Amino acid sequence: MNYAVCYYLLLQCLFETLEDSLKELLEKMSPEASDEGIPEDKAIYKKWKDVIDYKTMSADEIRAAIRRKLEYTCPRAEKTIEFLKDADLSYYMDEAILRAEALFDNSEE
């Protein structure tokens, strides 16, 4: 579920930055593409699955972890990387968790 929460946080970043390179990454990352809640591209999943632990990390730790991963894997996402320098992800956490939980509730049916 950490992967899905991370994805939904990045999706919120897309709404904030409207950045094409982030949009391309999110299209590859979508956990909604399969019944298991992971993307069809297993390499993308492997790269991002352990970036955050939403249960033990603070919103600031999550923000920093996602930012570091973007700097390494998607450096063209400059607007998003800049946005994540100071963004308050605590505002988006509840929504991301709810969406991830809904995804997994739907995948179990």
Give helix % range. 55-70%
* Proportion of strand residues: under 5%
- Cα(first) to Cα(last) distance is 17 Å
Unreliable runs: none
Order of helices and strands: HHHHHH
What is the number of E strands?
0
Classification by helices and strands: mainly alpha
Mean pLDDT: 92
Gyration radius, rounded: 13 Å
Whole-number tally of structural domains: 1
How would a crystallographer describe the biggest sheet?
A: none
Shape, principal axes of CA atoms: globular
Total helices: the number is: 6
Describe this structure in words.
This protein has helices at 2-17, 20-29, 42-48, 59-73, 78-86, 90-107. The mean pLDDT is 92. It is an all-alpha fold. The two termini are 17 Å apart. The chain is globular and about 35 Å long. The chain has one domain (2-107).
Q: What is the secondary structure topology, with strand pairs?
A:
Blueprint: H1 2-17, H2 20-29, H3 42-48, H4 59-73, H5 78-86, H6 90-107
Brief summary:
The chain is mainly alpha-helical. It has one domain (2-107). It has helices at residues 2-17, 20-29, 42-48, 59-73, 78-86, 90-107.
Which short descriptors sum up this protein?
mainly alpha, 6 helices, 109 residues, globular
